[in-house]
Amino acid sequence: MFDDTLKVFKELSSRDFRLLTGIEIEMKNFEWVPVPELRKYVGLPVEKLTFHLERLRRKKMVVRTLDPYEGYRIYFEAYDALALHTYVQRKTIAAVGSEIGVGKESVVVEVLKEPEIKIAEPEVLILKLHREGRTSFKQVKRTREHLVGKEHFSWIYAARLAAKREFMIMKSLYPDISLPKPIDQNRHTIVMEVAKGSELSKTKVLDPEWYLDEIIKQVQLIYSKGIIHNDLSEYNIFVSDEGVQIIDWPQYITKDHPHAEELLRRDIENVVNHFSKKYMVKRDVDEILGNILKNTTFEGAVTNDPEIRDLMTAEDLANAEIMSAEDFDEGETEEDFDDFTIQN
Ligand SMILES: Nc1ncnc2c1ncn2[C@@H]1O[C@H](COP(=O)(O)OP(=O)(O)O)[C@@H](O)[C@H]1O
Ligand SMILES: [Mg+2]
Predict the structure, then answer these.
(1) pTM for the complete prediction?
(2) Domains in the chain, start-ordered, CATH in brackets?
């Protein structure tokens, strides 16, 4: 799926990217973006725009309707291409390698960054493309009237929000907590370093007691920052000779969440159960939980940062959904596109 996007990506011109960005921006206002609206972004007559849009449609970068008027929208394929384009411009990414993971809510690929020094080897990084959307916003749709008629855009908000949350929390916790270094963020994606070692679920460690202790230490340390991972399991923990690294952070909660204790317990339980089943290592979940709750001071908490917070109510989600001009990168805001409205 992402491979197809990559093939198309190489054939896209800067005009194509302006058209796609134009559709992205106008999707805030239109379920189907009318062609004349796109003249703000690409200064061509409507017939020429239609010609270029048809090319993009054949490449599956845009979807068209003809009823009740001719209009266009984008989906994840184009959104992926737009994020990739931004990273290439920022020199965060020089090349894309193979897909290494497809989850329910993400696509994860290896990418290359040009070395700072010419003779050095390029650095391998990870690009995570979020795929949340629709379901998590159903509730919002039901409860927030101002979202009615904007469902067409909710997947962008949901995926973008997840990526932002994940990047922000990783930035706040790194390097005190053991996780891959976060590098860059754009739209619904993040770039980070490759986690060391391999997924706990795919590994048989020789010293399970030691690894379990390392994980519990991390859980306690994370909690001392005022944070609970909230999706901890053998699938989101990497193990290597050096220790453990924890990935997959968008669903984190803070210690002030109404179900904080219960969810912290669940994280511990997932890990303890894994070590019990696979290695016959027995530990008492409530004892570990009790120790953490009793012995943690929140001196290094990151929860004073207003960006680090729980999203619990439909209202939180709806507020997060309000996109501002800063959400678009330099060269991507509508104003910046004014330069391009030259008629020819
Ligand atoms: N930084 C990373 N280094 C190596 N592999 C990674 C990294 N991030 C993600 N992966 C791989 O991609 C998979 C999915 O990523 P994850 O962040 O867990 O998203 P999801 O929400 O889809 O589970 C992981 O289980 C892991 O195998
Ligand atoms: Mg995961």
Answers:
(1) 0.90
(2) 2-75 (1.10.10.10), 91-194 (3.30.200.20), 198-295 (1.10.510.10)
